[in-house]
Amino acid sequence: MGTPFHIILFMILSFLTITYGQDCNTYTFTNNNVYSTCVTLPSLNSQLHWTYHPSNTTADVAYRQPGVSNSQWVAWGLNVDRPGMVGTQALVGLVSSNGSVQAYTSSVNGYGTGLQRSGLSFAVSGIRGELVNGDVVVYASLSLPSGRTSFAQVWQVGPISYELLINTTLNISVQLEESH
Ligand SMILES: *[C@@H]1O[C@H](CO)[C@@H](O)[C@H](O)[C@H]1NC(C)=O
Ligand SMILES: *[C@@H]1O[C@H](CO)[C@@H](O)[C@H](O)[C@H]1NC(C)=O
Ligand SMILES: *[C@@H]1O[C@H](CO)[C@@H](O)[C@H](O)[C@H]1NC(C)=O
Ligand SMILES: CC(=O)N[C@H]1CO[C@H](CO)[C@@H](O)[C@@H]1O
């Protein structure tokens, strides 16, 4: 779909610790999906909900970004290779002017990315997005590299307000019962 928006992301390095199992657990998804773990990310009030299946190293995830208006995009991804923006394997939710959400994947190859559609380095199925009361939710199942459960994660909202990118580590094997 070309590059309907051009973004320049500035990196602000952050060394924050994720606190697991906060009140994100009270959120009810429109499809009544229940995820075993959730985390509020250190900025933008972004939330990631997931269930990890060790048997097939698949993670069912729901990335939820509150406070999004029409004609914005949101993105969350994992960087399998190293911390940082370049190389991030991202799920993107593009909110059109009429409020519909197109969800797709984008492999971020450089700092001037337009978040073009592309495949990722791991398989993704069931990706879809929705906008509910100002929350964009992007759902997907990620087939993670076998044996890997800890990745750098990256997320962002655009185009105007937050030219900011934070990377922090996501330990996807952490279970809800282990929090607190
Ligand atoms: C992975 O395993 C879970 C639990 O058995 C199952 O629900 C899910 O469909 C599987 N996913 C894939 C992509 O095979
Ligand atoms: C909303 O916009 C999208 C993207 O431009 C378009 O594909 C879709 O058909 C529109 N939906 C409605 C209900 O107008
Ligand atoms: C991820 O969390 C699990 C469960 O708490 C722990 O056993 C494992 O060592 C952690 N891995 C990393 C890389 O932090
Ligand atoms: C490129 C980049 O942003 N790297 C940083 C990501 O965050 C980790 C710590 O969480 C740093 O070690 C990296 O330098």
Automatic annotation (TrEMBL):
GO terms for cellular component: membrane. CDD domains: DOMON_CIL1_like (cd09629). It comes from the Eukaryota. Residues 1-21 form the signal peptide. It is found in: Membrane. Residues 44-158 form the DOMON domain. The keyword Repressor does not apply. Transmembrane segments: none annotated. Keywords: Electron transport, Membrane, Signal, Transport. Its main location: membrane. This is Auxin-responsive family protein. The lineage of its organism: Eukaryota, Viridiplantae, Streptophyta, Embryophyta, Tracheophyta.
